[in-house]
Sequence to fold (203 residues):
Amino acid sequence: MFPDLARDDVFRLETARLWLRWPRASDAPAIDRFCSLWVVARYTARIPHPYPPGSAERFVYAAREANASGRDLTLVMTPSKGNRDVIGSISLEARGSDRLTLGFALAPEAWGKGLATEAALAMVGAGFALTAAIEILASVRTENGASRRVVEKCGFALAGTGLQGAPARGGMVECHRFCLGRETWSGENARRRRASAGLARAS
Fold:
């Protein structure tokens, strides 16, 4: 689904405060550090707890393989200034030929700073720019208010609530399902550009 541009490990997205890039073997200790925390794993479908030894290395390998094939796009988040250790991961996974699913995890020390929203906006923009996806989906545990705010800030609309599979949580969990269509995203982008232009003229 993703083009050659994203299938090379030099591919990177830049935001005001972050670099989003392919994971590397050297990132495994930082990934292990936050994925091994229950506060991070608890709302995810796939991060086991306790986090088994070698899981971070397997994550890196699987992400790089999926990226190289163009099937999915999984990037890690690092600050663009100062300490460049990985503080989170974010992914777009193919759902058929015309849909993507957004997922992300962030280290606790980075919570409450708007970084997840910053990364998600960049990733959603890349998803629509690089693929022919007509919509991007996201699922959020019903009790995870922080992640719900992230996807809503990106323009996602609530599409329903129900049980979804969460292998790492031992079965089914109740989730809110969100959807963002290409046309909605294009309209939101135009609105943001107009607002930025207005601020620029006023300054």
About this structure: Confidence is low (pLDDT under 50) at residues 196-203.
